[in-house]
Design brief:
CATH topology of one domain: Rossmann fold
Radius of gyration: 18 Å
Largest sheet: 6 strands, mixed
CATH class of one domain: Alpha Beta
Membrane topology: Peripheral membrane protein
GO molecular function: ATP binding; ATP hydrolysis activity; phosphate transmembrane transporter activity
Keywords: ATP-binding, Cell membrane, Membrane, Nucleotide-binding, Phosphate transport, Translocase, Transport
Strand content: 25-35%
Structural class: alpha/beta
Number of strands: 10
CATH superfamily of one domain: P-loop containing nucleotide triphosphate hydrolases
Order of helices and strands: EEEHEEHEHHHHEHEHEEHH
Distance between the termini: 32 Å
InterPro entries: AAA+_ATPase, ABC_transporter-like_ATP-bd, ABC_transporter-like_CS, P-loop_NTPase, PstB-like
Shape: globular
GO biological process, one term: phosphate ion transmembrane transport
Amino acid sequence: MESVIKVENLNFYYGNFLALKDINMDIYKNNITAFIGPSGCGKSTFLRTLNRMNDFIENTRVEGKILFQGQDIYSGDLDPVELRRRIGMVFQKPNPFPKTIYENIVYGLRKNGVNKKEVLDEVVESTLKAVALYDEVKDKIYKSALELSGGQQQRLCIARAIAMQPEVVLMDEPTSALDPISTLKIEELLLELKKNYTIIIVTHSMQQAARISDWTAFFLNGEVIEYDTTEKIFENPRDKRTEDYITGRFG
């Protein structure tokens, strides 16, 4: 199985506070990897180290290595902007720009100097189809994205991320603000998208992790307690703390 991201002995600090402790992990290509664990255990902090989103927070520090396609992303040789194009991100609450649906999708491309109308038109159509939104919005792509429902907005944000043709898509609790029907649509979408992308999802829902992920990492107090195939984590965990969390004894 091909490893896309390899994390070696990672420690992450907010000031003097050690938020992530000695994390080692491989993220595998065209798989969905889920991070589970109680609130405040380091899941989202770890997710944001993978495309250097934590760089925007003052007084943070990284020790260890994160190799993306064999290149250390913290070595200084890799432009963080280019890294974030290759490792896209979708946030917890849908955050479309106050622009048309069309302009939301092509925003990153325009920023990168792509302005040819036929290219942009093709990307808009193909990404809207990829996120199963095209039929719902094809007659209003020049209307404000803010008119869409919450579930549609989140699918649009996924379309905006994949318009940049990333290799990896990070998702920080992408369905926590959505109703059950919209959540199901996003889950179905992720199972389809993993054919072309590597997906890493932070989720507060163990049921969601069990339903859609191939690999699951259980975080507790900034440490990865256990990381294995989702089937093993849920059916035969090695660590009692994992079992206690999954069976609802704490968390």
